[in-house]
Structures are given as C-alpha cells and as structure tokens.
Amino acid sequence: MTMHGLRRRMAAIAMVLGLGIALPFTAGVTPAFAQAQLRITKTHEGDFPRGGQGVYTITVTNTGDETTGTTGMDDTLPEGLTTAEGQWEVDAGVDTECVLGQVPDGRQVLRCDAQNLPAGESFTVTVTVDVSATAPCSVTNTAVTSDPLSGSGDEVDDPTTITGEGCDPAGNPALSINKSHTGSFTQGGTGSYAIGVSNAASAGPTTGTVTVTDTLPAGVTPTGASGTGWGCGVSGQTVTCTRSDALAAGASYPTITVATNVTTAAACTFTNTASVSGGGSSSASDNDPTTVTGGTCNGGNGGGGSILPINLNGVIPMFNNISINNNIDSPGASNTTNQDFELNAP
C-alpha cells in the first residue's frame, strides 16, 4: 500500500470515530454515563439521654451529572425515639417539603421530597428527637433516599447509644438522687429537705465535680444548705452544692439538708425537684410532693380558728337526714374546701 493510500484510510477512520463521538451531542442525546446519582449521609453528636433529646443531621447529595426528578428521603426513627412538627429544619436550595407519618409497626417516619435537585447540589434535614425514659440502650436510625426518574438511591445506618438510668455502660458511674422531707410545712413557718446522692452498685466511681441543684417553688425560700464534704450556696430560689471526691460503686455521699422559710402565700401543695449531674454520670432528678398547712390552707390554725367538730346525733331528734352544704365556722375560721356534713337522727 502506498503512503497516499494509508493516509486516506487513516483519515476515513478518524472521520468515523469523530462522527461517533460528536453525533450524539449534536443530536441532543445524553450519553449513558450522564445521570443523577444520589448519596446520603446521617450523623449525630454524642449519646442521647433517656428522657432527653438528641439531634440527627441528614444530607442528600446529587453526585451525578443530571438534575433529579423528585428526590425522596425517608428517615424511620427507631423504637423509643419520636419527633414532632416544628422539630426539624431543612436547608435546601430547591423546593423541599417534609411530612411526618408512621410505618406499620407504629414507628414514626419523616418523609422529605426535594424537587429537581441539580447535579452537585444537596439538601440537609436536621431532626430533633425526643428520647423516651424506656428507650433501648442502643438503637440504629436508618435513612434512605431515592429518585424514581433515574433509578438512583442510597441508604445509611446511624447506630446511636442511649444513656441514663439502666443504660450507663459498665465501668461508668450511674448517679441517682433522692429528695425527701418530714411531715407537713406550715404557712408562716419553716421546713427542711433532705437530699441524698448515690452511685449504682454495678457502676464505676465518679470522676470530677458532682453538682446538686434544687430550685424551690415560689412561696418557699431557701435560707441555707449544708452537708459534710459539700460546698453549698443559695442564689434566689436555687440551692447549688458541689464536691469533687470520688464516689465508689454502691456508696452514697453525706446527706444535704436544705432549710426553708414558708411564706404565708405559699401554695397548699407543690412539688420540689432536685437534680444531680457531673462526675461522669448521666443526670438524674427526683420529685418531692409537699403539703402545706395553716393560714389559708385547709386544716391549719391560721385566720383565727378552725372548723368546729360538730356532732348533732341525738341533739335534734325531730330532724332526720339533714344535709347541709355551707361553711360552719368558728369565729375567724375558714373552710376553703366547702366541706359537706350531714345530720342524721339516731
């Protein structure tokens, strides 16, 4: 073959190859490799406490070369975790809508749809979840994304550790708190609370500072707090006590005593809550319902007297089955509960 003939053949081959590459683009045909390709990531920070909240962050990205159709994302929350309207936020450059539903077993699922997600773009959903007091100590949150137009999809699992009473890992401290008082408080009088802090028998020792906080309700003013080894202070209605010595497994710190003044405006019943935190343990709290007597509270001796005990059996035999719904007061007394009494002949 002459050199001229070789050149002609090479030119013809080049033309065919060039047409094969160029024609699809000039005809407006999309090459097979150009399509949407979805990827999803899901993260959270730290452990979630029982009875508290946690936050998941979910990001869906189109890593392909084409715009998607409707990009769907489903986040099915595991047992013990729930969310509600207003507890999620969406950061997206395209129209995105999220709705809350349920799967057949009763768990919640958050569905988000993004319209026409361009190549290289993404949308992020931040979901705040409520952790029940009985949530499993370990859960896995699964989120999936899909685009029916391109057939692309992705799935991700996010294992999550739940902490709190009954869930603290072996070797970690697990503090609990007990709040109590003796008898009833009296309006215009005084009262005191006892606060105890203990470490679970199967736990590890505490490390660092342990803090006890007790915010008293209105009408009950803290006047002081003390306990062996504790450093306590009072600011307004709040008592704060701290210490840094290690508390061994199964042991308890010395009791904290909180002294109070009970004002004449104190409610007749209220609940006082104290909490403990730090030391390497999850936080814990305890409620102490308290009854107040005297003054405006039924059963007290305030206001000048008390309801007289009256037994009219046999005194007025001519009347039978008399029922009265009025206040029977001694001078200056009050019957705030509008008690009933009945009169029956013997």
Instruction: Provide the helix percentage.
Output: under 10%
CATH architecture of the largest domain: Sandwich
The best one-word shape is elongated
Tell me the β content: over 45%
Notable characteristics:
346 residues, mainly beta, Immunoglobulin-like, 3 domains, six-stranded mixed β-sheet, 1 helix, elongated, disordered N terminus
Overall description:
This protein is mainly beta. Helix content is 7%, strand content 46%. The protein contains one helix and 23 strands. The chain has one helix spanning 3-26; strands at 38-44, 48-49, 53-62, 70-76, 81-82, 88-92, 96-102, 108-115, 122-131, 138-147, 152-163, 175-181, 185-186, 190-199, 210-215, 220-226, 231-235, 238-243, 256-262, 269-278, 281-293, 322-324, 341-343. Mean pLDDT is 81; it is low at 1-8, 10-33, 300-320 and 322-341.
Task: Please outline what is shown here.
The chain has 346 residues and is mainly beta. The chain contains one helix and 23 strands.
Lay out the secondary structure.
Elements: H1 3-26, E1 38-44, E2 48-49, E3 53-62, E4 70-76, E5 81-82, E6 88-92, E7 96-102, E8 108-115, E9 122-131, E10 138-147, E11 152-163, E12 175-181, E13 185-186, E14 190-199, E15 210-215, E16 220-226, E17 231-235, E18 238-243, E19 256-262, E20 269-278, E21 281-293, E22 322-324, E23 341-343
Parallel strand pairs: 2-11, 13-21
Antiparallel strand pairs: 1-3, 3-9, 4-8, 4-10, 5-9, 6-9, 7-8, 10-11, 12-14, 14-19, 15-18, 15-20, 16-19, 17-18, 20-21, 22-23
